[in-house]
Specification:
The chain is mostly helical and 103 residues long. Helix content is 83%, strand content 0%.
Length: 103
């Protein structure tokens, strides 16, 4: 009879083991899905940061181009004339200057 009881107990042990394995697998699935959601949030944050930094890079490249253009302009005769007129008030001999009463 002892053998019969042992035979009957094995299916109960197998059921308990199956329930335990199923529970562990369920917990792992929940943990993986939770971590997946966290990683998606981080990815969205990093994507937004990347887009912002790319926008800043584009702005700085445009600014660098403007500075190069201004550097070229400062080396021209027109720039020298404009600065002489604006800062020093110089004019050509044959140039007629009109001033308003407020100046």
């Amino acid at each position: 009879m002892a053998r019969r009881r042992a035979a009957y107990q094995k299916p109960k042990q197998n059921r308990f083991a199956m329930i335990l394995v199923t529970l562990v697998l369920f917990m792992l699935i929940v943990a993986v899905n939770f971590r997946k959601a966290e990683l998606k949030e981080r990815q969205a944050i990093y994507q937004a940061k990347q887009e912002e930094l790319q926008r800043k890079i584009d702005q700085e490249e445009a600014r660098a181009e403007e500075i190069k253009e201004y550097e070229k302009y400062t080396q021209t005769q027109k720039y020298i004339e404009d600065m002489a007129k604006e800062k020093l008030g110089l004019v050509y001999e044959d140039e007629i200057v009109f001033k308003t009463e407020g100046e």
